[in-house]
Design goal:
alpha+beta, about 15% strand, about 35% helix, six-stranded antiparallel beta sheet, 6 strands, single chain, about 200 residues
Amino acid sequence: MGSYSELYFSDTRGRPGRGTLSNDSPYLLSKYHLPILWLGLFDTRDIDDDPHSQDPTDVWPYLVKRTEAAAALLVSRWSFLSKHFPVLQSRWRDQFLSVLRDSGFEYVHLDTHQIGSMVVTGPEWRRELEVMLGMFSAETPVPQGWLGRLLRRPSPQSPLALYNVRFGSRYDGDERSEPWAYCGASGTDEAMPWESGL
């Protein structure tokens, strides 16, 4: 058992609730991680509240967006992604986008409740997601000090730094050359395009 983030699709026209999954939906999982391409599909206005009980700390953020708009948003963020994740291959991005575009579903959903609940409460996780989503629109601060400039590490106050605190270890060492760190992995028996040949 582990804690996962989940990406899946639905034809529901309104903002569907958690677990509304179309039978033929591609279903992606990422254990103890939130792939950067998944986060790149959304803006802060795509966050909905998903109450799990009457407890106000048990309300978790849930992201949903029209699939076509999500794919276009990700394409518009490629410059940022390629600059800050230099090992991320355009081939993986294109394969990931093909899953979105070929899915035929109207909405893409991102559920991060399990990984968020490992570290903070629901409201705190929502604030962290809002900050991390800001990395795509905020100007990344110049690295501090001579060592920071040498290593090109982001300022500790930046949204990218928060993402790296939570998930950056997946982009270090050998894992940074694996497409699952950026795209996730299939949660079914059907392999995703970037998984063929692995």
